[in-house]
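Student: I would love a firmer grasp of how sequence relates to backbone shape in proteins. I am handing you a single protein, as its sequence and its fold in token form. I am told such tokens are a discrete way to write the fold. I hope you can help me see how the letters and the tokens relate. Take your time, and here it is.
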Amino acid sequence: MTDLCKQINEFGKGIGNKNRYKIIEALLKDRKTVGELVKIVKLSQPAISQHLKTLKGSGFVVDERHGQEVFYSVNTEYLVGLLKNLSDQVKKGRKYT
């Protein structure tokens, strides 16, 4: 499996759950703490934390610590790079298998 295939697979895992999609949607507006995401997405803190772990693992989300608080945001550089790579491969007419 190529690196691009692996990235696309992780991308699919990231958005393949409606609750993770809601988290991404909230983070696209601005960075958030787990507590803020709990209120917006209406899931428990452990559930939000588990989804954030998956999103971080897939490259969607990055975290930044400020004192006691950890802020999460969308990793736009990663997503733009992934989409550019995918676009370049499509333009070349390459197959992904």
Remarks:
- The two ends are 7 Å apart (CA to CA).
- The CA atoms of residues 33 and 66 lie 11 Å apart.
- Residues 76-92 form the longest helix (17 residues).
- The beta strands are 61-66, 69-74.
